[in-house]
Write a structure and sequence with these properties.
Elements: E1 8-17, E2 20-30, E3 35-39, H1 46-53, E4 61-66, E5 69-71, H2 76-81, E6 84-87, H3 99-103, H4 118-132, H5 148-161, E7 166-170, H6 178-193, E8 197-201, H7 205-211, E9 214-219, E10 222-228, H8 234-243
Parallel strand pairs: 3-8, 3-9, 6-7, 7-8
Antiparallel strand pairs: 1-2, 1-4, 4-5, 9-10
């Protein structure tokens, strides 16, 4: 992949459910070390778009290229094998298990005698989790007793350990307090520095303007526009979301 090659290129992607055009000829892209916000009201098409990108739904038209190669995702496993991981709003964590057990759930590490290698799993989990959040030290407590920010860290660490280079994050700061939100936003900034590409779904304009490089706004299943955060104001982005109105050219 060249230095300018996008991690993901979506070209005129469509997804229909009977007569409902949930996504109609949507195009967007994502580069290494970049966060692209996917914005729009409920029903705008962004959730369907990420479900196609994550292999939940097959597309009905258009194309997806990952690392410059055409991809056709039929299952979430296909997307994961291409390096795309989705951090759902629900996080999909086992509440009664600790961080290492969640990180390796279903993909446990074994000793040469085919028993669980608990020590290695804890060591590997600690390495990747502290890379994301150096203050996260108590890995052995159950996930149910962790803070929202720590839970997000475990979910992100699980994706990164298995070599994801592209993350789809669905409302990662929803229902978090200011301190926990700060923890998650700092983690996103660290991921950018490591060259991870992130599609971020968020309704919080302050979070979007802090961590996103560009935003792609959808309305009624179509892309209104993709703009650089540096070139627009929050009011202009809101006009794109609510009215489907593109920002005026500057100058």
């Amino acid at each position: 992949m060249s230095a300018t090659q996008a991690l993901v290129e979506v070209h005129e992607l469509s997804k229909h459910f009977g007569g409902i055009h949930a996504v109609e000829k949507a195009s967007c892209d994502l580069h290494a070390g970049e966060v692209v916000g996917l914005l729009g009201h409920n029903g705008a098409g962004k959730s369907t778009l990420i479900k196609v990108l994550s292999g939940v739904f097959p597309s009905d038209g258009g194309s997806i290229r990952v690392h410059g190669r055409d991809c056709h995702f039929r299952t979430p496993r296909d997307a994961r094998e291409a390096g795309i991981e989705t951090i759902h709003q629900t996080l999909a964590l086992a509440e009664n298990l600790d961080a290492p057990s969640n990180l390796f759930l279903g993909r446990e590490l074994l000793t040469p005698w085919r028993t669980l290698d608990a020590d290695r799993m804890e060591h590997e989990a600690r390495q990747v989790i502290q890379r994301l959040n150096p203050n996260f030290t108590n890995l052995r407590k159950p996930v149910r007793s962790m803070s929202g920010g720590q839970r997000q860290t475990v979910a992100i660490a699980r994706a990164l350990y298995f070599n994801a280079r592209i993350l789809i994050m669905d409302e990662p700061c929803a229902a978090l307090g200011p301190a926990e939100t700060r923890m998650v936003l700092d983690t996103i900034q660290r991921l950018k520095q490591e060259g991870i590409g992130i599609f971020l779904i968020s309704h919080d304009m302050a979070d979007v303007f802090e961590v996103c490089d560009r935003v792609t706004v959808m309305k009624n299943g179509s892309v209104v526009d993709t703009v650089r955060i540096a070139d627009v104001t929050p009011d202009e982005v809101l006009a794109m979301i609510i009215l489907g109105q593109k920002p005026r050219a500057k100058g």
